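[job 4471] stage=fold_predict status=RUNNING
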Amino acid sequence: MNVPKHPTVRLMTWNIHGAVGRNPRFDLARVVHLIKRHEPDIVALQEVDSRRPREAGTENPFDVLQKALGEHGVGAKSVTTADGDYGQTLISRWPMNNTDICDISYRAREPRRAIHTEIATPFGPLRVVTAHFGLSIRERHSQAKTVLSLIGKADMTTVVLGDFNDWLWAGSVRNRLARILPGHTPHRTFPSACPLFHLDTIYCRPGPALVRSHTDHSARSLSDHLPVIADICMKAAREREKAVERAA
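[job 4471] inference complete, writing structure tokens
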């Protein structure tokens, strides 16, 4: 395999709100088009919903997104009914190893899942965890603790991304995650029409690996969340890891 000169991996996270925009109408094709425009290597999508009304004979949104966006992926369906499934998906252009879907549900609240995997990028392995946290403070703190237990030791570049529902600074899980994953995106993403809250975030370890990030305000017509896109420099991450090893 020919390794590109610039070892950068692009990740994207987006709560697509069931592909129902402010119209409101189901429009998965426009969601796919927007995602492709950013050319992510790895994309995490929340609120994928096959229970939404759609034209007869059309494919399940989980299958449509997988076919359109990458060769490898896994769907985590937290709710399954007679009408269909609801949950999240993680899609990658590169193989995914040691993949696991973890139940991070809290007591009797809405079922929640986290996806944990190691992606074989051309620049080395990348540990990725994606999750959609709950709405209560105690729930989010419990879920943050579980997610941090999944990432393990600092033996490879690690990214945690998703919708963390972190509404307010008081009781925020942001500090807990950032202590372990010091690189993080700063964008306000909700509500998409006039973003006030940092609900959707990409965290990484080591911090210097996060070299740039942005959002896309044109997504406001497609979902109540804006997407977050970030570039992770695997070379910077490896150099930082080697420096830590030399200092130890």
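[job 4471] summary: DSSP finds five helices and twelve strands in the chain.
[job 4471] exit 0
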